[in-house]
Design a protein that fits this description.
The structure is a homodimer of 365-residue chains. Chain A is α/β, with parallel strands linked by helices. Chain A contains 13 helices and 13 strands. A seven-stranded mixed sheet of chain A has the order 2-1-3-4-5-11-13, with helices on both faces. A four-stranded parallel sheet of chain A has the order 7-6-8-9. A two-stranded antiparallel sheet of chain A has the order 10-12. The relative contact order of chain A is 0.11. β2 of chain A pairs antiparallel with β2 of chain B, so a sheet runs across the interface. Chain B binds a DNA duplex (30 and 30 nucleotides) through α2 and α4.
Chain lengths: 365, 365
DNA sequence: GGTCTCGGTGTAATCGTTTACATCCACACG
DNA sequence: CGTGTGGATGTAAACGATTACACCGAGACC
C-alpha cells in the first residue's frame, strides 16, 4: 500500500505538501495540487487512518453499545444511527448483546481510544453505573429515559405520556377496570410505562389496585402466562394495557385459546408498534415509537458534542413523542373502519393516518 | 490519558518492559510484571489502539457491509456476526443501507486501513464488481449464494434447494398448478429461488409456464399487487410459492380481500420464516433460514482467513441448509394439528418441531 | 577463574501521518 | 535598490506503541 512518502517522491514534493492537499488546507498552488492528486490516484493512495488518528487524536468513529434487544427495535434504532453517521462521514463501531454489567464494562474499555464518542443504551436500572470511568473521556449520549444522569446528554421515548395516553383512550371507550401487564422490574422503560398507566387511571379516579398490575418481562411467553392471572381476577377487567407488543402477542394468543373474544370481551393495547402488530388478529392497537428517529437524534446530539466549539453547553435530555395507533384490538376502530377496503391497498399499513397524534416534540433543556 | 512512558517512569522500568507485560511476551520477571501491572492500573492505563495498529498493521476490527435490508433479516445476521466477533475479541465496524454501487465503493474505501477483514453482503447482481479494488488487501467473505467469485470465501443460504423442497411439498399435497411470485430480477437470491421453483416442477413434469411466474420485488406491496395477476390466470393455480415472507404477507391480505380462502382455495407458501410469519392468518408455511448462523459462519470464516498461517488455502463456498416450516397456509398441517392446544403454551412458536428438516449442511470444498 | 548460556532488561528505529516553524522567492513599495 | 509582505514549500518533531538488537549479570561447566 502506498504511503505519503511514495506520493511525495513521485510528485517531486515534500510530504507536508501532500498532507496539505489531502486535508484541504489551501496554501497549495493549484498546479502542485493537481499534480499530487494525479500521482495519488495513480498509486491508489489513501491516507492511513491509524497514523492520522494517532496524531490528531480523532478517529472519525463513534461507538454504539446496545443491550441484547429484540430484533425489530434494534434494527430500527441502528438504522437511524447508521444513516445519520454515514451522512456525516463517521463510522460506527457497534457492540450489542451485553447481558451483565461486566460485559458492558469490558466492551467499553476495549473501545477506548478507538472512538470519538459513544451512544449507550442500557435500560437496566443499575447498569448505567460508572460508564464514564470505563469509557475514557469522549462525549456520551444515552438512549435512556432517565434525566438524573446530569453528566450526559440523552434521548428517550415518552414512555409515561405514551402509556398514559393509551390508558386515557381506553377510559374514553368506557372501560373502568383496566389491567396492565408490566415489563421487567429493573427495566427503566417498563417502570415508566407502569407509571404512565397509573397516572392515566389516577386522573379519572378509575379503579386502581396492585391486583391489576400483572408481572411480565417483555417476552412473548411472559405475556402468554400473564393471561391466566388476568382471567382469574374477579371481577374481571374489561381491558388490558400490555407494556410492549411482544407480550401483547402472547396475550392475544392466550386469550384466543381461552375463548375470550377481543375486543368484545377484553380490549387489548400494546406499546412499540412492531411490524407484527398490524398482522395480529385482531390487529393490535398500540403506542407508536419512532425507532429510527431515536437513533438518528442520539447520533446528532453526539456529533454536536463531538465537534462542539463550546463544550460548556449544558446537557440536554430530549424526549421523542409517541403516537397512538388505533387498530381493532381495543374496540374503537370497528365503528370507524369498514370491514372491507379492497380499493385501498395499504389501509392496514397506513393506520398511522387514522391515529390520534399525541404530544408533539417536547425538548427539555 | 496515561501513556506507556508514564507507566514506565512510575514503575522504574523501560517502555519496552511495559510493552512486554501488556503483550504477554514472557521474558519479564514476575516481580517486575506485578509492579508494572500495579502502576498501570493505578494510572488507569490501557495501550493506545491506534499506536498499536500503526506499527503492527492489525486493527482487531472487522468491517461489515450490508445492503439496506429488512429489519428482521438484518438483525438476525448482525447478531450472528456480533456475538461471534466479541467472543473472539474483535470489533465490528458496520455500514449498511447502501443503495447504489457508488455508495458501496466509497464506504469500502473509507474503511481501508481500519479493518483486518471484511464481510460483504450485496445481493444485487452487478454490485459485486471490483470489491477487491476498493477494499485494500484484507481478506473478504461474501454472504452471497454465487460460487463464481473464486477469489473470496462465501457463505450462503441454500436458496435453490429450499425453494425446490417447498415446491415438492406442495406437489406432494396434490397441487399440480403452482404459481410463484418472484423477487427483484437483479437479486441473486431471488433468481436462485426462482430456479429452485422451476427445478421442483420440472422433476415431476408438472405444469411449467412463464404465465405462472409473477413479478415481485421482495416488498409487501409488490406481493399484494401480484395477486391481481394471479387471480386472473385461467385456469387458476391452486397454490402459490412466494419468494419471501414479506411479499407473502401482501399476498395473504390481497387474497383475503378478494374472498379467496387460504388454504382451501389457494395454498400459499413463503421463504425466510420471519417472525411475523407465524402470526399471520392463516399462519404461513415457509422455508426457514438461520440468519444468526449465516452471520456467525461468515465471521468464523473471516477470522480463519485473518489469522491463517497458511493463506494459500483454497477458497470455500459454504451453503447453509434451510428447513421447511409447515404451518397452515399450505393446507397440510390442518390434519396434523388439532385446532386447540391450550395446554401447550408455545405450539405455534415451536412449529420447528413439526417441521420437516430438509438437507443437512453441505459444504463444498 | 575463564567462558558460555540465557533470562531479564534497555536503547533506539520504526510505523504514516500532522503541523509548528523555518525558509525561500517574487513582488510591491518607498 | 533595500526592505517588508505573504504565499508556497520544506524540515523535523511529535503521536504512542512494538520489536530487533545490544547489553548485563548470574550460574553452569570445564
Amino acid at each position: 500500500m502506498a504511503t505519503i512518502k511514495d506520493v511525495a517522491r513521485e510528485a517531486g514534493v515534500s510530504i507536508a505538501t501532500v498532507s496539505r492537499v489531502f486535508n484541504d488546507k489551501g496554501l497549495v498552488s493549484t498546479t502542485t495540487e493537481s499534480q499530487v492528486r494525479a500521482v495519488a490516484s495513480r498509486l491508489n493512495y489513501w491516507p492511513n487512518a491509524m497514523a492520522r488518528s494517532l496524531i490528531t487524536n480523532r478517529t472519525h468513529t463513534l461507538g454504539v453499545l446496545l443491550p441484547d434487544l429484540h430484533g425489530e427495535f434494534f434494527s430500527g434504532v441502528i438504522r437511524g444511527l447508521d444513516v445519520t453517521a454515514r451522512r456525516e462521514g463517521f463510522h460506527l463501531l457497534v457492540s450489542s448483546s451485553h447481558s451483565g454489567i461486566d460485559e458492558l464494562a469490558s466492551a467499553l474499555r476495549s473501545m477506548r481510544g478507538r472512538i470519538d464518542g459513544l451512544v449507550v443504551m442500557a435500560p437496566d436500572v443499575e447498569s448505567m453505573g460508572s460508564i464514564r470511568g470505563w469509557a475514557g473521556d469522549v462525549p456520551i449520549v444515552l438512549i435512556d429515559p432517565r434525566t438524573e444522569f446530569t453528566e450526559h446528554d440523552s434521548v428517550a421515548i415518552a414512555n409515561v405520556e405514551g402509556a398514559q395516553a393509551m390508558v386515557q383512550h381506553l377510559l374514553s371507550l368506557g372501560h373502568r377496570s383496566i389491567a396492565t401487564v408490566s415489563g421487567p422490574v429493573r427495566n427503566v422503560d417498563a417502570r415508566q410505562r407502569l407509571a404512565g398507566y397509573r397516572a392515566g387511571l389516577r386522573e379519572v379516579g378509575a379503579e386502581r389496585s396492585r391486583r391489576l398490575e400483572l408481572a411480565g418481562d417483555f417476552t412473548e411467553p411472559s405475556g402468554y402466562q400473564a393471561v391466566a392471572a388476568l382471567l382469574a381476577l374477579d371481577p374481571r377487567p374489561t381491558a388490558v394495557f400490555v407494556a410492549n407488543d411482544h407480550m401483547a402477542v402472547g396475550v392475544l394468543r392466550a386469550l384466543a385459546e381461552a375463548g375470550v373474544r377481543v375486543p368484545d370481551d377484553m380490549a387489548v393495547a400494546g406499546f412499540d408498534d412492531i411490524e407484527t402488530a398490524r398482522y395480529l388478529s385482531p390487529p393490535l392497537s398500540t403506542v407508536r415509537v419512532d425507532r429510527f428517529q431515536l437513533g438518528a437524534r442520539a447520533l446528532q446530539r453526539l456529533l454536536h458534542r463531538t465537534r462542539a466549539g463550546a463544550p460548556a453547553e449544558a446537557h440536554r435530555h430530549e424526549v421523542l413523542p409517541t403516537s397512538l395507533v388505533i387498530r381493532q384490538s381495543c374496540g374503537s376502530a370497528r365503528a370507524i373502519t369498514p370491514q372491507s377496503r379492497a380499493g385501498e391497498p395499504f389501509a392496514a399499513g397506513g393506520s398511522m393516518t387514522t391515529a390520534t397524534r399525541e404530544r408533539r416534540t417536547e425538548e427539555f433543556r
